[in-house]
Amino acid sequence: MDGFTIDNSLVPPPLGLPPGVTIHKVESYTSNFVKSGQPTYDFIRICNLAANVQNNDPGSVVKNAMAMLKPGGYIEWDELDTARYSLVKADLTNPASQIQTLLKQIHHHFDMLSPRGWIDSLPDILGRYGLQVEGSQHRYRLPFAYAKIENDKSFKEFVDMSYRFADKDEGMELCQLMATAKEECDRMGHMVTADLVIVVGRKVY
């Protein structure tokens, strides 16, 4: 099994990986994936690339993945639809003003930093590059029992995004809002979550 990552800072050293697993650091928009010059894999899973997709078009990523995929092989793309973070309340009467303010700002900044409208079009995008899409896109949302896990994951994404701002004052203000929103979220028992979008396509030639 081969893994490809754009940032290997969190990847264990080779001795810490299971037998037969190798991790490669690559740039997702270059074509240096296929070292042998021939398709290598029967199955490729792509996930969590939304922040790195350029010009709202992941076509180059699909093209590079297709070059690695054998005829008859499958690509599965899993992506959090972070352009549509939403609030789920355990109790509809509990206030959530800080969280709602935060989500408005988060959606605005996501649109500016990395538009993600392409996620809805993933089936068409995969089809454009010769993949036969199995069904359509599938959307999954974790049940409320996973609220703490979802909140921790969502707020970590928000913090990571705030570091990308050139305007440090704006980033600091957002961090302060995140802190109050997270406190409100935990205290009132809310969940902040995004759908997981899954699309599967088969290379037919």
Overview of this structure, please?
The protein has helices at 59-68, 97-113, 122-128, 147-162, 168-188, and strands at residues 2-5, 22-25, 41-47, 69-80, 86-89, 131-133, 138-140, 190-193, 196-203. The chain has 205 residues and is of the alpha/beta class. Strands 3, 4, 6, 7 and 9 form a five-stranded mixed beta sheet that branches. Strands 1-2 form a two-stranded parallel sheet. A two-stranded antiparallel sheet has the order 5-8. Strand 3, helix 1 (59-68) and strand 4 (69-80) form a beta-alpha-beta unit. The protein is globular, with a radius of gyration of 19 Å.
Quick structural gist:
The protein has 205 residues and is an alpha/beta fold. Helix content is 35%, strand content 24%.
Number of strands: 9
Q: Indicate the percent of residues in helices.
A: 25-40%
Oligomeric state, counting identical vs distinct chains:
single chain
Name the overall outline: globular
Secondary-structure element sequence? EEEHEEHHEEHHEE
Count, helices: 5
What would you call the structural class? alpha/beta
- Unreliable sequence segments: none
Query: What is the residue-mean pLDDT, rounded to a whole number?
Result: 84
The main β sheet shows up as: 5 strands, mixed
Strand content: 15-25%
Q: How large, in whole angstroms, is the Cα Rg? A: 19 Å
Distance between the termini: 23 Å
Helix and strand arrangement:
Layout: E1 2-5, E2 22-25, E3 41-47, H1 59-68, E4 69-80, E5 86-89, H2 97-113, H3 122-128, E6 131-133, E7 138-140, H4 147-162, H5 168-188, E8 190-193, E9 196-203
